[in-house]
Design a protein that fits this description.
CATH class of one domain: Mainly Beta
Structural class: mainly beta
Low-confidence stretches: 1-21
CATH topology of one domain: Immunoglobulin-like
Radius of gyration: 18 Å
Number of helices: 2
CATH architecture of one domain: Sandwich
Strand content: 25-35%
Oligomer: single chain
Number of strands: 14
Mean pLDDT: 79
């Protein structure tokens, strides 16, 4: 059965609320293992997509803007998190890995559609073409077949793939979530996404939200930001 809007998605390797599949204590509880935080923020990263007019310059752009992608002089550190799976009627969207750098986090996302499903992907990117989706000049809702992914930072700041930041040549106001890679087929797509800046570990959680109305997905999940901070200590600096 599909979860209700903004419900917590299933997390591979974890059980919700400390309960096992039979309603009893999970193995994690019995062993005293700390559970992942619950998604509690009321912020909606999809509510007010920003446009180029919202950019507030914060100084001249460096040679390689931090908001454009992972630093070329670093080797990132993979955070210790379990894959986060958002399930729909005949499709799945999953965050499979988060690689931390000194300036931000690279998020790996995969999309799978059920083999033999009536509606496949037909080789078309469910998020639209590379670069951010064009702004809806009519002010209406994005189409139901458009996959959107959003984040809510521990400090309450939010960003999503509906934000239009294409072509920014001056430092924007973060947070910022952009695609840096997209490839796929008739049944699957894979993405690399860049979240800038690096989330502050001082808050309770980093929340990832996924909406794909056509596929029956409207959920969010919380990730412990301390897992990202811990990985940040293992980033390898090159040529310094």
């Amino acid at each position: 059965m599909r979860a209700p809007a903004l419900a917590t998605a299933a997390v591979i390797g974890l059980t919700a609320c400390g309960r096992g599949p039979d309603g009893g204590q999970s193995a994690a509880d019995e062993e005293g293992t700390e559970q992942q935080p619950a998604a509690t923020s009321t912020a909606d990263p999809f509510a007010s997509p920003r446009t180029g007019e919202d950019r507030e310059p914060a100084g001249p752009a460096p040679e390689q803007p931090e908001w454009s992608g992972p630093p070329e002089d670093e080797i990132g550190s993979v955070a210790d998190i379990d894959p986060v799976v958002f399930e729909g009627d005949d499709a799945v969207v999953a965050v499979t890995a988060m690689t931390v750098y000194s300036t931000g986090t690279e998020i790996d996302v995969v999309v799978r559609t059920r083999p033999g499903a009536e509606e496949g992907l037909s080789g078309e990117d469910p998020m639209g073409g590379m670069g951010q989706p064009p702004s809806d000049e009519t002010g209406g809702e994005p189409p139901d077949d458009l996959l959107r992914i959003g984040v809510v930072q521990p400090d309450g700041g939010s960003a999503s793939t509906l934000d239009d930041w294409a072509g920014a040549d001056e430092e924007p106001t973060g947070p910022l979530l952009t695609r840096t890679m997209s490839q796929g087929s008739d049944t699957s797509f894979e993405y690399e996404m860049w979240l800038w800046p690096l989330p502050d570990a001082g808050g309770e959680s980093l929340e990832v939200a996924v909406q794909w109305p056509e596929r029956g997905i409207d959920e969010r999940e919380a990730i412990d930001p301390e897992r990202l901070e811990s990985a940040a200590h293992d980033v390898v600096q090159l040529w310094r």
